[in-house]
Structure formats: structure tokens, C-alpha cells
Amino acid sequence: MSPKATKTQASVSRDKGEPAATALLEMYYYLCLARAVDERMWALQRSGKAAFVISGQGHEGAQVGAVYALDRALDWLVPFYRSIAAVLMKGMPPAEIFLIQLGKDTDPSSGGRQMPGHYGHARHKILSTSSPVATQCLHAAGIAYAAKVRGTGEVCLTAMGEGATSEGDFHEALNFAGVHRLPVIFVVENNGFAISVPQKKQMAVDNVSARAAGYGMPGVTVDGSHVLEVYAAARQAVARARGGEGPTLLEVKVPRLTAHSSDDRQERYRTAEDLAHARAQDPVHVFAAELRERGVLTPEGEQEIRARIQREVDLGTEIAEAAPLPDPATALRYVYFEPDAER
Amino acid sequence: MADKRFLDAIHDALHEEMARDPSTVILGEDVGRKGGVFGVTDGLYEAFGEARVIDTPLAESCIVGVAIGMSVNGLRPIAEIQFADFIHPAFDQILSEAARMRYRSRNGFECPMVIRTPYGGGVHGALYHSQSIEAFYAHIPGLKVVVPSTPADAKGLLKSAVRDHDPVLYLEHKKMYRSVRGDVSDGDFTVPIGPAAVRRPGRDLSIFAYGLMLHESLGAAELLAREGIEAEVVDVRTLRPLDTKTILESVARTSRALIVHEDNRFGGFGAEIAATIAEEGFRSLDAPPTRLGGPEVPAVPFSAPIEEWFMITADKIAAAARTLVAY
Asked: pLDDT band at A10, cuts 50/70/90?
């Protein structure tokens, strides 16, 4: 009855786990697309068209590497507010991100009901998200439990920041997932800051992954500036999950390149050296250099990708700006089930 | 038709729904081999196996949060919180997640799930095994709140809750598990979530109650009848959505309203019924809508005399009714 796991992206050589050139370029495309979409989100906010931005800049390498290891049609994503690259890869085009950003009626995540950054999309198996952090970890465990007992072959990947790991729901979710050996991957995109609070005030350990031992699952820490390092670790985690061996805690160290949000000024609590260091870790630049060195990314190829992204982002912005705002007459709807409504 | 205890009616509903729909699962603390601390899930582990009757870690937010995830991926979870007093760690999952999932995704996702939990005092449970919690949860749009008071309703309403498309909080007064009996039809039937029921007709005042207080109110009506006061007793049954039509029709007949609940009065659920009557039934009234609720202390105290002092009884209800009728 249920769809079985299909194989991961065809362009990935399954022998060595080393992506082929086309796969590398697809990863690079998503890295750059997410960055361009993110920059446009800020431009919309700075020009007074959007009320709020919560950014994923610096996190793209972690998300592209992790989500590339999924079967993007079959598997679930339970995202968080920085998951822009992840939701793009799961099938949401730039226009949808901008519809969300502008609170438009056709925003596929909430129809303009939620603040920007609260991604969700039923058709793409991206669960709707809220603002309290770490609540989604339990939802991911529940989705994975259902996948296991229904035999769907699905894997569930959920993402969060390192601040979320201080919440009780994080602990409760990893504990439940460990007990039941669920097909779920907890990805912690550790950028070193929960808004302004540095990691050393958030936890007494250097790596979140150290906590995995307490839940009977492997904990891995990788460098989010290196997409392929993330991909290799995520691929193992997906294989474990799909093979019935259980969950993985995957910590990805990432730079946070922007303030927490458009309502934050990170210069108040980050030094110039720290910010310069973060910029040097930019996964877009690191991956581009790596691809050039491998001879995969040529100047012409790069130009082509950039031009394509420019077109897509411009078109997406145009579509979103032209879209209608929600009608207050509809704001009472969908508090409860409506028999005649389309879902 | 069979004479059943309140507890058995709930058990039967669970058993029949688990047998009817293979997507249903039960999860909670001690619900498996032990069959629950009150025995409500007795035998279900043996009947349906450990994958569908899940002994969870001792973590209430986990129970509800995991149930939400299950519900969006094709299962129909029936979560048990061992005592309503312990549900508070799950408040965020209920309020921010389950109840908002449909609204916040504009119908993209839904959480068809039930959260069952025993509430209420009178069993020497003291501050942390006696609480009434309905007011916190009835306030939440997106959530339904059901409080059955008869075995037949317990079965029929639970079946409706399991089949509902939205999250339902199903409150079971623990003192009723083994003390309340009643006729329950054999086989499959449902009682719709929403409508209240007039349990005893009367002309002099209306008493609105739910759960254990419905039984105390019926007892009060017996006492009052001996004095020539005819009380109409309305079983509210569903707190959200609230059947304001039945409530207002009853007040139109009797012109007096007494609302009874075990929870303390301040900000309690009775205020919602009283305000509805005042706003929409004002012209029917011969006296102010009146609430009888638990005392303004944090919760039910333990020792017998102070527990009895807290609990609302037929005598206390009858006394309040006499005052109201004499107004």
C-alpha cells in the first residue's frame, strides 16, 4: 500500500557515495539560490515591503548537504525558521518563499497567517512549523513512528538551532526516538548563538553531538562550510534510518552571517573579528572554491547558474508582489474541520 | 443493552475503535501491560500489540508532541495523560501545536487525535491528583473539550472524538470510574460532540453541570423536589463547542440559572456559561445567573475534613438553588 523508499538522487554514484559533477552543480545551484532568495528577502524588508526577515545565510551548506541525502519526494522535512535552502530543495520555488515573506493570500504555508519564516507545505511533506523552538522535534519523532508502523519507508529530517537543544522537548524527542529506533535525523545547525547568547552560556559541552550517547544514538559533528562533509554524514544517517537502525543526531557547525533577524543588531554582541571569521566560513564561497579546484565549476558555468538564479528570483518576486493579500472575511476559516473545504 | 461502569464504557469504546480502525494507536504512561493506573486500557496491549498500545517514557509533552506527529502522518493517536494534574508540561504542544495546526497551515495539515485524562477530586488525591483543568483548555480555539457524565455518553462521545478531524481533550472524572453505572447500548454507536442534554426537566430553575457535578446536581434536584422546587438539570457534555442554544432555551423556560463546577470559580468555565446567559438570555431572567464553584484555594486538600470542605455536594447545590429561587 505504501510507497517504498526510492533510491536517492540518480546522479549520485552509489558505489563510493561521491556525487557526480551534475550532482555537485545541483548542490551549488541550491546553495546560491538560497542565498539569493535570502538576500532578496532582506531587500524586501529594507524597502518597506516586508515586515520581518529571519535569515538562513551561512546555514545553506548544512541544509543542502543534509537534504540532498534524502529522497526529496518520499521523505519528510520538519523545518525551522532558517530552513530556506531546505524548503527550496523540497520543492518550494522562490515565488512561494516571497509569498510567505509578504504575507500574501496564496502563501502556501499559512495564507498570510504566520510570520515569515514559518515554513510548511503538505504536498511537499514539509510540516507546518510554529515559533516555540524544539516543539517540532517531537513531531518529527511521531512522523517517524508512523512511518515505521505503517511501513512507508519514509525518513524524517528535522532541523533546529543549538539554542533549541536546551528545551525539554529536544530531550524528550531524542529519548523517544532512541527507545523506538525511529527513522529520524535530528540536524542541529549550530551557529554559536541563540539570538545573542553564545554557546558557552547555552551548554557546558563543546559539541551538541556529545549528548547523543544519552539517547543511544550516534552523534556526529561536521563542518557546515563543507557541503560534502555534511552530505556524507547525512547519507550515513539516512542509510541508518532507512535500514531500521534508528535515529542520528547530526550537528553541523555553521557561521551565522546575518543578525538573528531584521529586529536584531548583532554588532551589539559580536566582535568584528568574530564577524570576519564567520564571513571566511561562508559555505557558498568555500564550496565554489572547492568546485573550481575540482574543475567542476567553470567561469561560464558559474555565470550560467547566476543568471538562472537572477531570473528565478526576479520572477518569484514579481509573482509574489502581484499576488493579493488575504481577505479578512476568510480569517475565521479553518479553526476546525470544514467538510466542504479542499485540502 | 447492558449495565456498565463508567470505566468499562470508556474501555469498550477504545477496544471497539482500535478493532475498527487499524490506524488508531494508544500511547501514554503505563497504558500497556499494566492497562493504565485505573485499568481503562486493560487488555488492549494483549489484543493489539506493543506497536499500537505504546508505553511511553514518563514525559507528557512527549506523549502529546509525538501524537501530533503521528496524526499528520496517517495515524489516529489516542493519548492518555495519567492524571490531568500532570498535563501542564504538554500545554505548549496542545495550545501552540495541535490546536493551531489547521489554522496556521490554512487547512494544509490537521491533527485528528484524542487526549484522554482523568480529572477531579473526592478520591483523596490532594493537590496533584484532583485538579479540574477544563478552564485552561476550553479557552483554546481549535481544540474541542468533552466531559461525559454517563457511561453511554462516555462510550459514544469517545467514539466521536476518535473519529473527529480535530484534536479533542476528553476529560474523565476519576471518581466516576467505578461509582457511576448506567445502561449502554450494545455495539457501535456515537454521541455527537456539541449538543448538551436535558437530564431532568423542571420549571423553577436550570442547573448546568458536567462530569461528576451532573450527578451531584441530579441529587440536589431530588432534594429540591421534596420541597416543591422543580429544577431542570442540563448536562453540558461538551465545553467547546458549547451548546448555547440548549442552555438559553432552558433558561427561557425556568428564568433562573445555576452553574455548577468543581473547579474554583474565579475565571472558571462557569463564567462563560453565565456570561452567555447574561448577554443572550437577559430578558428571560428573574435572577442573576449564579455560579457555584470550588473554593479559591490552589487545589483540593488531602485530609478528609478539608477535602470534604472543598468538594461540591448535592446539599451545597440544593442550598444555592434555594437562595436563587428565593431571589
From this structure: very low
* Rounded mean pLDDT, A202-209: 98
Kindly name the residue from B129, B173, B215, B261 that is annotated as catalytic. B129
pTM: 0.96
How far off is chain B from A254, nearest CA to CA, in Å? 28
Residue of A145, A186, A340, A342 to mutate, interface with B, max B Cβ within 10 Å? A145
**Domains identified in chain B and CATH numbers:** 2-184 (3.40.50.970), 197-325 (3.40.50.920)
Chain-chain contact of A138 with B68 (C-beta, under 8 angstroms): yes
What pLDDT shows up at residue A15?
46
Predicted ipTM > 0.85: yes
Domain boundaries, chain A: 21-95+132-323
Does the annotation count B88 as an active-site position? no
Summarize the confidence of residues B109-138 as an average pLDDT. 98
- Judge whether B56 is closer than 8 Å to chain A, CB to CB: yes
Of B25, B62, B166, the CB nearest to A176: B62
Architecture of domain A21-95+132-323: 3-Layer(aba) Sandwich (3.40)
Residue among A128, A175, A215 with most chain B CBs within 10 A, to mutate: A128
Long-range pairs for B106-109 at CB < 8 Å and ≥24 separation?
B106/A110, B106/A111, B106/A113, B106/A333, B106/A334, B107/A333, B107/A334, B107/A338, B107/A341, B107/A342, B107/A343, B108/A108, B108/A109, B108/A120, B108/A121, B108/A122, B108/A128, B108/A343, B109/A120, B109/A122, B109/A127, B109/A128, B109/B72
